[in-house]
Amino acid sequence: MTEHTTIVVSTEGRVGKIQLDRPKALNALNQTLMEEVVSAAVAFDADPDIGSILILGSDKAFAAGADIKEMAHQDYPSMYASDWFRRWEDLTELRIPIVAAVKGYALGGGCELAMMADIIVAGESAKFGQPEINLGVIPGMGGSQRLTRSVGKAKAMDMVLTGRHIGAEEAERIGLVSRVVPDEQANPVAEEVAELIAAKSKPAAQMAKEAVAASFETTLQQGIRLERRLFHSLFALADQAEGMSAFAEKRGPEWTHR
Ligand code: CAA
What we know:
- The chain is of the alpha/beta class and 258 residues long.
- The chain folds into 2 domains: 7-199, 2-enoyl-CoA Hydratase, Chain A, domain 1 (Alpha-Beta Complex), CATH 3.90.226; 202-249, Orthogonal Bundle (Lyase 2-enoyl-coa Hydratase, Chain  A, domain 2), CATH 1.10.12.10.
- The protein is 46% helix and 16% strand.
- The chain contains 12 helices and 10 strands.
- The strands form 2 sheets. Strands 1-2-3-5-7-10 form a 6-stranded mixed β-sheet, sandwiched between helices.
- Helix 6 packs antiparallel against helix 7 and helix 10 (202-214) packs antiparallel against helix 11.
């Protein structure tokens, strides 16, 4: 088992869990945490016994952003040479569905990490924001792009230019999160969602994610063509035959994830 210093990694059935664990720094995302989260997620993605990933924070903060103390003394050559934050993109390349449970602050990189998940379950205390403007910078982990695609220009400009935090209710209203639940329910509900997804046929769930994600990247026509090709390709898998037979025989499907 790999030793981690900033996260706790575990599995529960077919769900791979990554708990952010820098509570004293409100789970600020330093370079070590980035590497640990992405490496753990990449390993879960490749594991045939894992069907979804669940990312959890603490009660006070999902994550209060990239680690400001770590960045404060960087300069342009060091940021450019290391391509600071690039590793996070590997998380967005994964095919396995990712669920995030957000309570408390999800600011800056914390909001951006949550948006890298496919489904966000928010507790009522969740506060989302892109406050980088207050530090004299702008979002750097995809916030200006993913937030805009997710909630549209009006709200994205409002959040990115003013740095204001929005609560869970507004986040749900504008389409940033999938569900809002009482705080004590956030982790259990997110876990239930992750379990439900992990109990599906893995290739079908992966292709469903791929198809929906493609809508952010392609024209409507290209996206619809991709969807149809993926749909056709699922007929090469045993799980399609099993799913449809099980329906006809009025029983639950037994997926082989193949
Ligand atoms: N980086 C480093 N440390 C952080 C941090 C961050 N993003 N956010 C909080 N911390 C640390 C604080 O420095 C403090 O540490 P000490 O006890 O050693 O002083 C500890 O966490 C607790 O924080 P506070 O005392 O500030 O807690 P609070 O309840 O008074 O305030 C808060 C909470 C409003 C979230 C406040 O901590 C805050 O504004 N944090 C910064 C939020 C922010 O600007 N995020 C964007 C970062 S830049 C970025 O993310 C770039 C990008 O696009 C990827």
